[in-house]
Amino acid sequence: MADSSRYYTLAEGCPVANSSTAILARNGQGGGLGLLQDTQLIETLAHFSRERIPERVVHAKAVGAYGEFEALADCTDIMALSFLNKIGKKTPVLLRVSTVGPESGSADTIRDVHGWAMKLYTDEGNLDWVFNNTPVFFIRDPIKFPSLNRSHKRHPQTHMTDSNMFWDFHVGNPEGIHELLHLFSDRGTPKSIRHMNAYSGHTYKFTKEDGSFKYVKIHVKTQQGVENFTREEAIKIAGENPDHLIKDMFEAIENGNFPVWNVFVQVMDPIEAQNYRWNIFDMTKVWPHSDFPLRLIGKLTLNRNPQNYFTDIEQAAFSPSTMAPGFAPSADPVLQARLFAYPDAARYRLGVNYQQLPTNAAKVQVYSPFQRDGAMRFDANYGSDPNYVNSSLKPMRFYNEVNGLSAKSLSVFTEHEKWAAEIASYTSSIAEIDFVQPALLWDVIGKEPGHQGRLIGNLAASIKDVLSSELRQQVYVLFSRVNKELGRLVAEKTESMIED
Ligand code: NDP
Predict the structure, then answer these.
(1) Which of 15-19, 208-212, 300-304 has the highest mean pLDDT?
(2) DSSP string covering 303-354, please?
(3) Residue 312 predicted with pLDDT over 50
(4) What CA–CA distance (Å, rounded) separates 346 from 340?
(5) pLDDT grade for 1, boundaries at 50, 70 and 90
(6) Is residue 220 over pLDDT 90?
(7) Do 445 and 451 contact (CB within 8 A), yes or no?
(8) 285 lines ligand 1 (CB under 6 A)
(9) Ligand 1: which residue has its CA nearest to atom 5?
(10) What is the distance in A from the centroid of ligand 1 to the CA of 437?
């Protein structure tokens, strides 16, 4: 029925009298034949078929919100990042927190590492911190990244997640043992995003105008306190509400219960890095707190829900390569690979002009006429400004808008860093040192009543689905290398579950 009280138009603006009608060739017998001239119907159906964009191959299921970062300390002794250059300075932030392996429709309380992607819209351009809720990662050789993720996703034949391939990958790539302990500990099933920490994992660099730099690791620690579900609770809630983490965060913010995190850095001088007992470019290792204490730099508060999930969160693109002056990558090979892979994923998923989308756009004046045209260019494309560099032609309308602003000479790359290198292949190999920090974590977990028992139960519940007893034995050997008792307990618990 026509509803003349509601005003609708076609996408091009022409008013339509009825939002629910179809133009048909009718012969009076009911029904009718559709006509190509029914623009309203055709456009509606054609757009619906195209409204999904490629889902992220990892980190598809997410919750997001806006907020602010407030600088709480004077850090000018170690870096030149403008958003940290004055106590009390506030910078707008977008945060997107996700599980890694499962699809967008999956339950968000299932056991998984959680991605923590944070865009700081600083007054010197955007800075993305693309972190996880664990301080380490499963691999340190970038080429293993697709294999790792596929082994956690669906089997190529059965299309089911598969413990056989999960554990087969980790037995074959034992450097992930530290991260496995984090994943199967209570922290693998956070009770809410508000009660979760996040860590840079990688080593990054804080840089200064004089060319000096410090290595840093960043820690984002919840003021609400860390809280987790047990395995049983997480499974139950996955059935009751697969969007539990989204609901928890959305409702808290909607009710004015704004979550807050303190942000810290560990700071290492490059001289110290040279002889440090841990390889700081190996993201399967932490820097022990006793060696490098946490230094508070600021706090993050989330205070605004997205207006529209698709435009604000799904179209958001985060990359470790998005760096403001004063922040720089280290020589961690996995980080180096991510600098390429993340913006490449955004180009595929959102198109080559993804930086113009409102949620990704910098809040400062942008003048980047080296990037022109491309699919879905929807700004003025720098008009008649030259599309090559070092032009002396005038006037340049868009250039004139930024004329007078002076560029910081500081590049995100520390120019003083000299590399005399040889091109060589590198594959990391496993050594006894790889089991030292996992053993320390096993002891840390032991300080919390019942936690070691829950870790064993969580591991056994996954390993019991490995069909080959030979592969199961290899898994037990892997955990025995951390701690003999751990290996024995995992074997005992798993085999007893299988016998039941
Ligand atoms: P400490 O012995 O000084 O402290 C242990 C840290 O472990 C705590 O500060 C806490 O970090 C974290 N932690 C506490 N309970 C758990 C848990 N149930 N699951 C996971 N992490 C927990 O740490 P060290 O620096 O000497 O490192 C010892 C081990 O602690 C490491 O091998 C590492 O696995 C783990 N750890 C170390 C971190 C680091 O950056 N040094 C960070 C997190 C864990 P937080 O306050 O961040 O929650």
Answers:
(1) 300-304
(2) EE--S-HIIIIIT----TT---TTEEE-S-HHHHHHHHHHHHHHHHHH-TTG
(3) yes
(4) 10
(5) very low
(6) yes
(7) yes
(8) no
(9) 444
(10) 10
**Averaged pLDDT, 199-220:** 94
DSSP secondary structure string for all residues of 56-123: PSSS-SEEEEEEEEEE-S--TTT---GGGSSTT-EEEEEEEEEESSS-TTS-TTSS--EEEEEEEEEB
Which domains, and CATH codes, for the chain?
Answer: 62-350 (2.40.180.10), 432-499 (no CATH)
Q: Is 288 in the pocket of ligand 1 (CB under 6 A)?
A: yes
The active-site residue, picked from 59, 114, 170, 182, is 59
pTM of the model: 0.96
Which residue's entry shows tokens 């999960």?
Answer: 166
Are the C-beta atoms of residues 78 and 122 closer than 8 Å to each other? no
Which residue(s) pair with 97 in the sheet? 63, 116
Whose tokens are 């910078």? That residue is 91
Q: Determine whether 59 is an active site residue.
A: yes
**What pLDDT shows up at residue 392?**
86
- 132 as an active site residue: the answer is yes
- 483 token code pair: 């701690």
